[in-house]
Specification:
By secondary structure, the protein is an alpha/beta fold. The protein has 12 helices and 12 strands. The strands form 2 sheets. It has a 6-stranded parallel β-sheet with strand order 2-1-3-4-5-11, sandwiched between helices. A 6-stranded mixed β-sheet has the order 7-6-8-9-10-12, with helices on both faces. The model has no long low-confidence stretch (mean pLDDT 89).
Length: 332
Amino acid sequence: MATIADVARRAGVATSTVSHVLNRTRVVSPETTRAVEEAVAAVGYTPNVLARALARSVTNTVGLAISTSRNRYFGDIANAVEGECAKLGMMVLLANTRDDPDEELRAVEELHRRRVDGIILTPSAGPDAAALAYLRDNAIPAVLVDRLPEAGFDGIGVENASAIGTLVDELAVHGHRRIGLVAGQEGFTTTRERVEGYAAALRRRGLAPDPGLSSVGHVEVATARDATARMLALPEPPTGFIGANNLATVGILAALRGAGLAVPRDIALVGFDDFEWSDSFEPSLTAMAQPCDEIGRRAALLLRARIGKTAGPPALHRLAPTLIRRGSGGRS
């Protein structure tokens, strides 16, 4: 089945432009309109007229478009959303976006066709934010989770910059001055905020950020391991590491063990994201625990208010994560 993304590619325009042409929500040049209409005919795209006609009805179902294939953190969020929605009498339809912008747009479109009352989304790092444009152009009640790229939607996440600063402080108080950061995928607001918070915390401590000690783009254990190995090979390697998500932390640990380094005897390690086996490491892992249950609960409540038109202007809500001190952040 052809999608709006197929039309956009064929016409050489953004998906939001296709939506404006089809919905008559913004003036578009005659040339662009003609290109879109020709692309619609060429790919066989059929707008979901029925879903639009029934948009005001209530189905008591909500869509959850989230990447569940890589990071356990998002699985915990999904469980929390489903649990709270069940209490509210709403059924959740889950779509795995795989953090791929095209998959994300298809997921949002399909959930819309199935007449969900609203959608909870963890946005990907797509260059044109096509899924967000689709939600906006079709006036779909929506709440963003974790990644909060703009204030035009309700959103719920954590205080990333201050939390990563706390992790820097946790290492610095033990005398660490060369602190490495292995961060998540470039383009995510969480990654940007954590990298900026890391640099700001170093400066606050009188330490100049070293570009060689900060690496982004790691959503796989293997790439985080390789980034850590490169830092360990520096003439002045880090004496402590921060994993900016749980996959990065596992990758760092794998690299340290591969290099024959013991934590914290030889090197320190702290992580952003606490996970169920953190206290099973030897020594157990010092980590910043995100309030997954509260994030999921608040997301469901925000969406219900938006569906019921009882919410005020869209707002971003930040929760404070909690530092869990264990044994891995020591040694100076």
